[in-house]
Design goal:
With 315 residues, the protein is α/β, with parallel strands linked by helices. The chain starts with a helix and ends in a 25-residue tail after the last strand.
């Protein structure tokens, strides 16, 4: 009989990686790091219930969130820079990841929330498959920057039930300045269409929890209201009311941003955020979320302390 534990401990990284739109072709299988910072080793920084997502995600018991190390988009203002830019985390096996999913479900998680997992999508597909064979029943949600290859999204069809997708820029110049990704606007538009095609309309169960579809997030940055409005308009023109719109005012300037990007050193103005809300309401959007005043605080950034990552019995 085939032993899945042996198989799962093998690296699943592709010979030359094209999993994300960077298509940097890093030889991860040989230990080379990609643009994202990942090698062939699966790395995770935190596995825990998370209570600060939108209500259909966190519910009353929390979202079973897995924060992966590294990121293909690498925004200069990332609030999770310790893991996304600095690569903090520890190596685990795919088998351990599958067990972590089951532990989250056992703690009462409403869903499995995979934060920036693209660079490990092959390992995640394997882990979800194993966890489901061992009884995982809750929805699996892919929590993404929106910078995704359509092929990778389609490959995830049997793995992912619902999507949390950012739509960060409509301006290629801004995407280049802050994420070195001038192709972001066109890539994110194609990715959104693929995710909607794959998972269908935004759907809640009888308890108000998200079971399928796409929730699109718009992170307002200081002084960039016009581009965020353009993003909302772009998404509405592409997919209308088939998705839910979430307007984020939580931007918190990361340490060290002032020197290189002084325009991002402050917080979002309440005036700008109110104008964004007014714009969304004026479009006739039916499903949307906004954040309460005071959501911009480092207190809402999770501690990346390897909580829940390593289990004494199986790593
Ligand atoms: S996931 Fe990482 S290694 Fe793969 S193409 Fe993207 S940046 Fe390169």
């Amino acid at each position: 009989m085939c032993c899945w534990e042996e198989l799962l401990n093998d690296s699943l990284a592709p010979a030359t990686c094209t999993l994300c739109p960077r298509r940097c072709q890093a030889a991860r299988i040989s230990g080379e790091r990609g643009f994202c910072g990942a090698t062939d080793r699966l790395r995770v920084a935190r596995v825990a219930l998370h209570h600060w997502e939108e209500p259909p995600i966190s519910g009353c018991q929390g979202s079973g969130t897995v924060f992966f190390s590294n990121c293909g988009l690498r925004c200069v203002y990332c609030q999770n820079y310790q893991i996304s830019l600095d690569g903090y985390g520890t190596e685990i096996s795919t088998q351990r990841l599958a067990r972590a999913f089951l532990e989250l479900a056992g703690q009462g998680a409403h869903n499995i929330n995979l934060v920036t997992a693209t660079q490990y999508s092959l390992e995640v597909m394997e882990a979800v498959q194993v966890a489901r064979s061992m009884g995982l029943k809750i929805p699996v949600i892919w929590n993404s920057s929106g910078y995704e290859n359509v092929e990778t999204i389609m490959r995830l069809a049997d793995t992912v039930d619902a999507w949390l997708m950012d739509f960060r820029y409509c301006s290629a110049a801004l995407a280049e300045r802050y994420s070195q990704a001038s192709d972001y606007p066109s890539v994110a538009a194609a990715a959104l269409l693929a995710a909607v095609q794959q998972s269908g309309p935004y759907t809640l169960d009888s308890s108000g929890l998200m079971t399928s579809g796409v929730l699109v997030r718009f992170l307002l940055l200081p002084g960039l209201l016009s581009d965020t409005i353009a993003c909302v308009d772009q998404v509405f023109s592409l997919v209308g009311n088939s998705v839910c719109y979430s307007l984020l005012s939580q931007y918190t300037p990361p340490a060290g941003i002032t020197e290189r990007y002084p325009e991002l050193a402050g917080q979002v103005s309440a005036w700008d955020y109110d104008l964004l809300i007014d714009h969304v309401l004026g479009l006739g959007i039916t499903d949307s979320f906004m954040q309460e005043e005071g959501s911009s605080s480092a207190d809402f950034i999770p501690a990346f302390d390897l909580a829940g990552v390593v289990n004494q019995s199986v790593q």
